[in-house]
Every structure is written in C-alpha cells, then in structure tokens.
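It would be a great kindness if you could assist me with a short task in structural biology. The matter concerns a single protein, recorded as an amino acid sequence and a row of backbone structure tokens. Could you please explain, in whatever detail you think fit, how the structure tokens follow from the sequence? Thank you for your consideration; the sequence and its tokens are set out here:
___
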Amino acid sequence: MNLIRLLVIVAIVWLVYRMYQNWLSSNKIARKQQARQAEIKNMVQCSRCGLHLPENEPLKQGGKFYCSEAHKN
C-alpha cells in the first residue's frame, strides 16, 4: 500500500514538473514573438519591380526605394 502511494506521489510530482517546463517554454516562445513583432518595420515597395521590403533594407535614391543596385541604376 505504501509503495502505491509513493508511486502516485512521484507521478504527480513528475506531471507538475512537466507542466512547469511546458509553461516556461511557451513563455519563451511568446517573448520571442513579441520581440520579432517589435522589430518589424514599415514596408516599402521597390520603385522598379514592386517587391516589398522592410524600410531599413532597400537602397534609396531621390526619395524612391530599390531592392537592388541593378534596379537602382
């Protein structure tokens, strides 16, 4: 009878531990997603081909945005 109680207690402790680990990992994922969303910048469109790029990536000339050096020239 005592062995059964011990096994039940061990199983409960193990389940609580696993639930805690899952909770921690889901919080980490949520924080990473929030950080990615904070990094997202305004999107701009290449004046030549129409490709959308984050505002900090394209080349800029004369107030227009370009996706590459070839499209800029």
About this structure: The chain has a mean pLDDT of 89. The first helix runs from residue 2 to 39.
